[in-house]
Specification:
- The chain is built from eleven helices and eleven strands.
- With 313 residues, it is an alpha/beta fold.
- Strands 3-4-7 form a three-stranded antiparallel beta sheet.
Length: 313
């Protein structure tokens, strides 16, 4: 059997908060409980939103929480580099393979055209109606605008079994349409980059927030089209605030750095998260390493998890 290889793949777009610590802890526990290898990959694909200092800060915060990694931007590893901004050549090579197979086409649609043409698809995503797949491009459009590149999605259901969310299936061509592989500004899409990276880094298990459950069929399609082996997925419920919004980097009060500055201990944060995860019967201080022996994916709760604030520890 292959040794488990899991990863935590945060985007350095702000200070990490309790919600990031939640998925980081669970991904870490899944790997550590199996005696596997933990990878930290910084997803700084989008230069407009990513900041180097947030990448550095998140490593400080994770170490403070007691969550370590065996391969990552600071320690290196066999599959280096571990920052997406340094891996663009790999995304481009994958894109060229898809293009050579006739699966990619340029899209010159403006925002207004997209808004006017797109019927609503599943899970509030807009379905791309395939306008550019069909239209003959006039020369003016080609000169004026750099195109985005889209995948010509074949019809048919993509099915998978998630270790927590169960059986899922989606016909991407109906519910999403041809999705972007490279934006018009030349930045490769998350869907492509994450597949290329997880496959290249030999990741066997992906545990992440269930906001990405709806991305998984697109990623599985890319694994298939690129002839790559897909990992086993576990999508866990996200933490939400009292108003029902998922925690975001805008909620400063729940940033790990702010909690630390206020004197909250790492063991209190970990204990709180472990209690929410069903790994502790009551909310108490605990080290992340003390949770490894008792971890099991089937203990994790379903449904939304509301954060109490201040933390009851
Ligand atoms: N970088 C993504 C995020 O921070 C996570 C990607 C993934 O886990 O697949 O939301």
């Amino acid at each position: 059997m292959r040794t488990m290889r899991g990863r935590f793949a945060p985007s350095p777009t702000g200070e990490i908060h309790l919600g990031n610590a939640w998925t980081a802890l669970l991904a870490w526990l899944q790997v550590r409980a199996a005696g596997g290898t933990m990878v930290l990959r910084v997803e700084d694909l989008d230069p407009d939103r990513s900041r180097t200092e947030y990448g550095e800060k998140l490593m400080v915060d994770m170490k403070w929480l007691g969550l370590d990694w065996d391969e990552g931007p600071d320690v290196g590893g066999y599959y280096a580099p571990y920052c997406q901004a340094e891996r663009r050549g790999l995304y481009q090579a994958a894109l060229e393979r898809l293009t050579a197979a006739g699966l990619v086409y340029p899209c010159y649609c403006t925002r207004a055209e997209l808004a006017a043409s797109a019927p609503h698809g599943g899970e509030n995503e807009r379905v791309y109606a395939g306008i550019c797949r069909r239209r003959k491009l006039d020369d003016a459009r080609q000169v004026i605008r750099h195109p985005a590149l889209r995948l010509a999605v074949p019809p048919g259901e993509i099915c998978f079994s998630d270790l927590h969310a169960g059986f899922r299936s989606q016909d991407i061509s109906r519910e999403i349409g041809d999705f972007i592989m490279r934006r018009s500004d030349g930045i490769h899409a998350y869907q492509l980059a994450v597949v290329v990276d997880d496959a290249a880094m030999n990741i066997t298990h992906v545990l992440r927030g269930d906001d990405l459950l709806s991305s998984t069929p697109r990623q599985l399609l890319l694994y298939r089209l690129l002839g790559l082996k897909a990992p086993v997925f576990t999508h866990v419920p996200l933490l939400i605030d009292q108003e029902g919004h998922r925690l975001s980097k805008r909620q400063q009060a729940l940033s790990i750095a702010v909690l630390r500055e206020r004197g909250v201990k790492a063991e209190s944060i970990i204990g709180y998260l472990a209690w929410k995860a069903g790994l502790l019967e009551r909310c108490q201080q605990v080290k992340a390493s003390e949770l490894i022996a008792g971890f099991a994916v089937d203990k994790l709760p379903s449904g939304q998890l509301i954060v109490e604030y201040p933390l009851p520890v």
